[in-house]
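Lab notebook page, bench 4
Experiment: in silico fold of construct C2
Operator: M.H.
Input chain length: 296 residues
Purpose: comparison with the prior construct
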Amino acid sequence: MTKHVFVVWASLLASACVTTGTYDKKVAELQKVTADHDRAAAEQEKTLQARIDELQKKAADLDKQLNAAATERDGLRKSLDDTTALAGELKKRLEKLGQNVDKLTGEKGELARTLEDAKTRLEELRKQKAAAEARAQTFRTLVAKLRSMIDAGQLKVIIRDGRMVIALESDVLFDSGKTNIKPDGQTALAKLAPVLAGITDRKYLVTGFTDDVPIHTQRFPSNWELSTARAVEVVKFLVASGLKPQQVAAAGYGEFDPVVANDTPEHRAQNRRIEIVLQPNLSDLPSLDTLQAGAK
């Protein structure tokens, strides 16, 4: 019973003189009120239960959405972690690639410089080869022009210490201790002068040599003076015979550059000599840049 029913009953009990009809009527009214109240309560309960079911369904849907959101969040977090790791790896690779590019750029520059140096050296070698061929041709031409004198034993054409040399025995040119050119020597030099003059792109160094027998005279205190004076006489004769003065110079080595040991009369005779050296052209020599590059 509800509170309202108890109030009705309390009212009825409070009234001691209620008739039976009135009682039955009141009971009927009470039962109707109770039934109406029960129906309303049932309706309200049904409505509340429906509301509860609806809320539970929404709560279940929210749980599903929450679980889905959490799953998506975890997936995105993992994807973010993977992306962060990939970004870090890509950054490292990019840095390494940048370093490699810098290194390769440097190596390319070095290779270009090396290639340019190689081209320069190759060009220099080609020039030297051409110069060597020119020297060889000059040697062949000189030998051909002097063939008769070579065959007659008046002179030799040789390569000595990398230089082209025309060697004449001093005994053919000079008497012992003298600087006057003998007739046979003058004849040989007169034939030689026009041949040398014909090679216009060369200069010559006339060098005198003696054996190791010392000389001590007022004019020649040593073999240096004697060898130099003989070289000067040969230069004067060649110039008088047609060689330009600008093409020729003289020097004396005394006994200090023998071709053989001074141990026999025959060997000493070989060391007493006049040599005419064909001086190399400066254009035939390697450039300073080439020599410096070769020293690296």
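Observations: Strands lie at 156-160, 163-169, 203-209, 248-254, 273-279. Residues 123 and 232 are 40 Å apart (CA to CA).
Next step: discuss at group meeting.
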